[in-house]
């Protein structure tokens, strides 16, 4: 008992209750996340319009799909967990089974907590993004975290499950679905970010006539500067190529013992190679 890692400050006989509480807590967190996303959707429709509304709806819809996938994952994981306990405890009670397999039980609890925490963080990040107070990168990071915690939950469940278990197959399918939905959140977030940034850059509706004229002149100056810089870089590239060809043609391999690089062949002046002489 002294050597056993104390990852949880609870007694072994309490592990079984802890598992059920954590799975129930995770399910409750998912339900709350779905409800909060629906509220955000309604609020976004009332307070935003145009491109911002389109972006917010796309992001929130992808988050809703992810929450539904996680909810199914947790439900399937709970069913598999019950199957594992029933098939492995024998004459022992459920509490005794969890106590006997305490390391596995603690891993299951940790994985369940990670899934619930990831879902909560995703919703909070989505709320900040919709309110224009957060960063799009937060949503992307949360999506990756959910995918990682899902893999942890599947791995913890797979350790004790039978290879031919139908619930295990369902859980693995749910895991793939969660990963797919998380990837959709990342994709919708990135596209939405690009769309919003492009709109903000090209939105001139609030400018006065004088401000517009000033912006126009500054943009013309930038265009001329870039064109001049492009022309200069092209000249520089041409000179670099000339020097490269000159060095390649005048390079003497005997100076350092290295092989002489073959110059670039020119079309139209290639000579026919001589025929091989008979011995």
UniProtKB/TrEMBL annotation:
<dbReference type="GO" id="GO:0048268">
    <property type="term" value="P:clathrin coat assembly"/>
</dbReference>
<dbReference type="GO" id="GO:0030136">
    <property type="term" value="C:clathrin-coated vesicle"/>
</dbReference>
<keyword id="KW-0963">Cytoplasm</keyword>
<keyword id="KW-0175">Coiled coil</keyword>
<dbReference type="InterPro" id="IPR030224">
    <property type="entry name" value="Sla2_fam"/>
</dbReference>
<dbReference type="InterPro" id="IPR035964">
    <property type="entry name" value="I/LWEQ_dom_sf"/>
</dbReference>
<dbReference type="GO" id="GO:0030864">
    <property type="term" value="C:cortical actin cytoskeleton"/>
</dbReference>
<feature type="domain" description="I/LWEQ">
    <location>
        <begin position="7"/>
        <end position="248"/>
    </location>
</feature>
<dbReference type="GO" id="GO:0035615">
    <property type="term" value="F:clathrin adaptor activity"/>
</dbReference>
<dbReference type="GO" id="GO:0080025">
    <property type="term" value="F:phosphatidylinositol-3,5-bisphosphate binding"/>
</dbReference>
<dbReference type="GO" id="GO:0043325">
    <property type="term" value="F:phosphatidylinositol-3,4-bisphosphate binding"/>
</dbReference>
<feature type="coiled-coil region">
    <location>
        <begin position="207"/>
        <end position="243"/>
    </location>
</feature>
<dbReference type="InterPro" id="IPR002558">
    <property type="entry name" value="ILWEQ_dom"/>
</dbReference>
<feature type="region of interest" description="Disordered">
    <location>
        <begin position="248"/>
        <end position="279"/>
    </location>
</feature>
<dbReference type="GO" id="GO:0032051">
    <property type="term" value="F:clathrin light chain binding"/>
</dbReference>
<dbReference type="GO" id="GO:0051015">
    <property type="term" value="F:actin filament binding"/>
</dbReference>
<dbReference type="GO" id="GO:0006897">
    <property type="term" value="P:endocytosis"/>
</dbReference>
<dbReference type="GO" id="GO:0007015">
    <property type="term" value="P:actin filament organization"/>
</dbReference>
<dbReference type="Pfam" id="PF01608">
    <property type="entry name" value="I_LWEQ"/>
</dbReference>
<protein>
    <submittedName>
        <fullName>HIP1R protein</fullName>
    </submittedName>
</protein>
